[in-house]
Design goal:
The chain has about 280 residues and is of the alpha/beta class. The chain contains 13 helices and ten strands. It folds into two domains: about 150 residues, Rossmann fold (3-Layer(aba) Sandwich), CATH 3.40.50.1860; about 110 residues, Rossmann fold. The protein has a six-stranded parallel sheet, with helices on both faces. The chain has a four-stranded parallel sheet with strand order 6-5-7-8, with helices on both faces.
């Protein structure tokens, strides 16, 4: 494995557009860093896939990003973070800097003693893994955690349906879940969900603290790169955005975050795997 250099890119991957919320937050915090983003649009959404499939996808994408000499890998998908992150860490050990999108949120909430009752929404796989509940209770046994799978939200967002009557109706149907009554905080346990954060906040009339991973992961990236002396001091290369299957909606949403100059390339990783 080649020696990590500060000028190398930060590798970020997700099943689709959701991880762009994380990439955008990192770029806002660290504008000199080069981003290499991979959206596995051929297999989205991950939330409906088996753990074995998710492990295979995450392993193959991380291999690719490491081959591209990324100095850090961010698993910008809650489902992959819950199912595959520990296995990726075991595989690469200290050779690769890695972050997931669950732990920064858990640590922030656990440190807030005013929060007692928490709601969590996410994909079927994320909720089924109990990753948030287990990690929150590991830090604080006094917390009351209620989780709900909200599978329609990812497909809705991927198709560009947010901040309209359809999204309002679906969000309201999910958030009326009885166990969410009187919660102090809501965790958006999917990196797609910051795109509907305002709608969720409006549903609760601003009375519930809403947590997503974007800014917290950006803080964690800054901290980790600083500690390992890998902060990029001088921007050299443009950001790159890759997909395993080109979709018009991915390109359009990418441009909402990163401007019209974005270059979207297709990489047929799965064809290579089958050779």
């Amino acid at each position: 494995m080649t020696r990590k250099r500060s000028s190398n890119p930060i590798g970020i991957f997700d099943s689709g557009i959701g991880g762009l919320t994380v990439a955008h937050a990192i770029k806002a915090r660290l504008p000199e860093e080069e981003i290499l983003y991979f959206g596995d649009t051929a297999h989205l959404p991950y939330g409906d896939k088996s753990p074995a499939a998710i492990l295979q996808f995450a392993d193959h994408i991380s291999n690719y990003l490491i081959d591209q000499e990324c100095k850090m890998i961010i698993v910008a998908c809650n489902t992959a973070s819950a199912i595959a992150f520990e296995q990726l860490q075991k595989k690469w050990g200290n050779d690769v800097l890695m972050l997931n999108v669950i732990d920064p949120v858990v640590k922030r909430i656990a440190s807030n003693k005013d929060i007692k009752k928490i709601g969590v929404i996410g994909t079927k796989a994320t909720i089924r893994s109990n990753a948030y509940e287990q990690r929150l209770l590991h830090h604080r046994t006094d917390l009351n955690v209620s989780s709900l799978a909200t599978p329609l939200l990812v497909s809705m967002i991927e198709e560009g349906f947010f901040d309209n009557q359809l999204s309002h109706t679906i969000i309201e149907a999910y958030l009326n879940y009885p166990d969410f009554k009187d919660i102090d905080a809501m965790i958006l346990g999917c990196t797609h969900f910051p795109l509907i954060r305002k709608e969720i906040d409006d549903f609760f009339d601003g009375k519930v603290d809403i947590f997503d991973s974007t800014d917290m992961v950006a803080d964690a990236v800054l901290d980790l790169l600083t500690r390992h002396q890998l902060l990029n001091k001088e921007r050299r290369n443009p950001d790159r955005f890759l997909v395993s299957d080109y979709t018009h909606s991915f390109e359009q949403t990418s441009r909402l975050f990163f401007g019209a100059e974005i270059r979207l390339d297709q990489v047929l990783l799965w064809d290579e795997l089958l050779r």
